[in-house]
Amino acid sequence: MSASGRDWSIRGAIPRDAPAVSEVARAAWRNTYGALIDAERIERFLTGAYSEASVRRRIEIADRFDVALARGDTAEGESPGADRVIGFAEWALRGTEAELVATYLLPGWQRLGIGRALHARAVVGYRGRIERLTVQLLRDNLDARAFYESLGYGQPVVGEWQLFGLALPDLRLTLPLAAADDGGGGFKADRGGHTRPDWLS
Predict the structure, then answer these.
(1) How far apart are CA 101 and CA 195, in angstroms?
(2) Which of 52, 129, 146, 147 has its CA 20 to 30 A from that of 103?
(3) Chunked in runs of 10, what are the mean pLDDT values of the chain (201 residues)?
(4) What is the reported pTM?
(5) CATH class of the region 2-179
(6) Which candidate, 14, 17, 35, places its Cα nearest to that of 25?
């Protein structure tokens, strides 16, 4: 696929993607939540949730874990011409629904339709298997809320996420799978919305 003259693709994640996924999460978290959460809590969270070992385990146990790759966009330390991980989406199956556990893109690759494509890939994979998709995001992450609402998510349920003693209001949004778009359409925002990882709660 191509956007703004940049080629990218999506595939299922493999354990050796863990270091690159970790870097994407760290860059996106700092960019997205720097105005909402203090730097000390952000770094503490990233150290636990997005260490290479943690990401490798998440890739291995996730129901779905897809990565977006920039073709020939080599990061420092990689072989020239290698595809670079620029984003990811992690899903967990919970009965009749699938929860988007986390999805992020490197800041320079946002708003190009890649987040929408990662979501559409999951819609195709889950169609016929479950009834709905869910996502939890911080209430004050307005870019993320706009993105998910543009995909058809709604029915907000207000909650709270405790992050190392800091109470953060959050929202749970739901999308009936029958109404989900599996590709196409315009793109509005692509900042990702961290969902409360229940394995850290």
Answers:
(1) 5
(2) 129
(3) 72 97 97 94 96 97 97 57 91 96 94 94 94 95 94 94 95 91 48 37 24
(4) 0.84
(5) alpha beta
(6) 17
Residue 157 identity (one-letter amino acid) = V
The residue behind tokens 């929202």 is 171
Q: Give the rounded distance of the alpha carbon of 117 from its chain centre.
A: 12
Burial status of residue 167 (CB atoms within 10 A of its CB: 0-12, 13-18, 19 or more): exposed
Non-local CB neighbours of 100 within 8 Å, separated by 6+ positions: 89, 90, 91, 119, 122, 133, 134, 135, 193, 195
Distance from C-alpha of 153 to C-alpha of 198, rounded to nearest angstrom: 21
Write the DSSP symbol of residue 98. E
Q: How far is CA 187 from CA 100, 116, 119, 126, 127, in A?
A: 19, 7, 12, 22, 22
Q: Nearest-CA neighbor of 83 among 109, 59, 51, 122?
A: 109
